[in-house]
Design a protein that fits this description.
This protein has 75 residues and is mainly beta.
Length: 75
């Protein structure tokens, strides 16, 4: 499945990793799967509990260089 609605704020500078940040807000109710029964089940309290948590938020203010062109956001 996928989440069709989200917003992001990404501030990333290779030369200023300490000043970089990311914030991604996912609209949990924008979930879409190939099967309506699966979509309905995932919205329930046993899974994502979308009534209580309508958004999922990932924030990171620390980035670590992993490889030549690979970075990890810690959040």
């Amino acid at each position: 499945g996928e989440f069709k609605k989200f917003n992001d704020e990404i501030h990333f500078d290779l030369n200023q990793l300490k000043e970089s940040s990311v914030k991604i807000v996912v609209d949990m109710n924008s979930l879409a799967t190939s099967y309506e029964d699966l979509t309905s089940t995932l919205k329930l309290t046993d899974w994502f509990n979308m009534k209580m948590f309508p958004e999922a938020i990932f924030e990171a203010h620390e980035f670590v260089k992993k490889d030549n062109n690979e970075y990890e956001a810690k959040g």
